[in-house]
Write a structure and sequence with these properties.
heterodimer, A: about 300 residues, mainly alpha, B: about 400 residues, alpha/beta, Rossmann fold, 5-stranded parallel sheet, 4-stranded parallel sheet, 13 helices
Amino acid sequence: MGQQILNAIFIGSIYALFAVGYTLVFGVLDILNLAHSAVFTLAAAVAYTLVVNHGQSFWVACALGIVIAALMGLVIEYLCLRPLRRRRAPPIAALISTIGLALIIVAAIEQGRPGTLFSWLWVDGANPVTMPPGTFPNPTWNVAGLTLEGAKLAVIPISIVLMLILGYVMRFTQVGRGLRAVAENPRAARLMGIDVDRMISLTLVISSALGGLAGILFGVALGDISPYIGRDSVEVRGLAVIVLGGMGSIPGAVLGGYVLGAIEVLAVVLLGSNVRAGVAFAALFLMLVLRPQGLFGAQLRERL
Amino acid sequence: MRRVRLVSILAAVVVAAACGSTGGGGTPANSYSGKTIKLGAVLSITGAGGVYGPQSRDGMNLAVDEINKAGGVNGAQIHLDVKDDASLQSQSAQVAQTMIQSDQDLALLGPTLSNSAVAVHPLAESLKTPILAVSTTGIHIVPDCNFPKTDPCKFVFRDSLGEETAIPDNIKSYAADAHPATGVLLVAQDDKFSSDGGKIVQATVATYNINLLKVIKFNKAEADLSPYVTQAVAAKPDVIFITSLGGIPAKIMIEARKQGWAGQFLGGNGFNTATVSKNAGAAGQGARSASAWYLGNSFPSNADFVNAFKTAYGHDPDQFAAQGYAGIKIIADAAKRANLTFSDLPGDREKLRAAMETVNIQTPLGPFQFTSTHDVKQTVWIIKMDGNGGFTLVHQIS
């Protein structure tokens, strides 16, 4: 059971880190950025390619992966969101445009093979790959019947510290106050002299950087980097987490991530492996029925 | 005038008889020369089957290239159109229908996944178009493609080794070598190939006195397989059976070794590609499976294929490349003997189907024939992962 608790905390950390990015954008813009899972994938793919195909060190590759993810935040804003915002398009239009961008990013990665247009980005097509052994320090200890793996253990404090920093920034800094003002009422924020567009860009940069970091940690710790890790592993679960925690709530996303991780693992242990996904989403359904605003959310307004 | 007409009729009969005598064993070169034999391949280049489809495609393209450069099939060039089904059943059926009805392809190859075959093969059967499965290994692929209906499908053939042969042969071989007493099965429950493999493992283990302690089912899109592996390892089995697709077997092996389990992995066709062996690395060393093909076989039809493939693509082929290559050679051989008209597509499809039943050629898989149920009749190779992305031969089962 101890090993399963560790499993739950590890995957909960990934879910939380990923979902914090999701919920940040939702909190500020009232839209779901469904390109977030593609950014998760892209950062992991970039880090892998830099190490394996371009001979970069692991740490440089991770840093550049996060930078690329952050830049993708700007691409999402300038390509998918701002033009629609200018035309006062309904939120559903932004949702669809981010889905489109996500599909393009995943397609670009999965088409990457030697000699193709995207070979600078990825050469393994649809194949899943792992970082070569020895790329990063990953000691494993066996203590009291538990297997403690360095890469997975590291994910937990990294996620928690980053989420605490984000919480601090949002609550106690000028930037955080600006973001919260935009979230509360963009028109009023603009009248108060806040550069709303800049704040939105910043939100997407932070959100995408966190998503990218989650992707890199996921790919490295689980030895699974492929064009589909975002879509298959975290996209729907990330949505579940932010609903569970309360749409737009950062503490809610953190708690929701760990709750979903725990529910999934407990379902395997107590009810059998074949019902894991069913149990997790039954819990989500229950939450929607009993407390639609989630664990930390305010009463739901009309949002997508 | 009557005499002239009689002579004309007699002359026509003589000419027709002469033409007829070239059918079957004759040389229909005149009707083939300058023509094109259009084939379509429905493969999973992306998605879960993307680990296998590109290899099949490369094998097929190599065979087409070789045949065309050597003068074609009695002078007719082969044109192969490969389309990606993204590992989706609905897209697979859509692509197949387009190839059969709009593109007017003579015959099809594929699809990559058994999950897609349950939609594509009945479609090809209903449209009377020969289709050769080159990687589908699940249950009810041939001859009963319309399962639960049991009528044999006349137009569906398979050159890939079915899991109903591969998994029992592998278990039998390992049981004879190591006499394992206990096992745990990890099975992906959300695709036909994997769940069929799981059923076969469950039906086979008792024959070899292996007590299956636990059956652990999971879905392929799980974020983290660790909870399942922890359950498997906690049961302390001698063997972990894995029936799943793509990168999942490697992920399970790596996690189980990290958790300190040192037993034997046994699997099916899902193990048999270099990607899985490479990803598993040292964790996969010794993992055994039954394969339709082995890289190190030195008989000429394999050695030539391996050399040509390495020259063309710069890396070793795998089982899926070999089966794709063999698939084109099989259809080319049948087309050569089918006395195609190139003007009557339904008739040509029927002629090709009939000719495929009597294929008897050398391929990288070894001497190749179909059984009476259109399944593959060939040697089975028990292989194990070498820990470096390759495989070594353990046993040969004729």
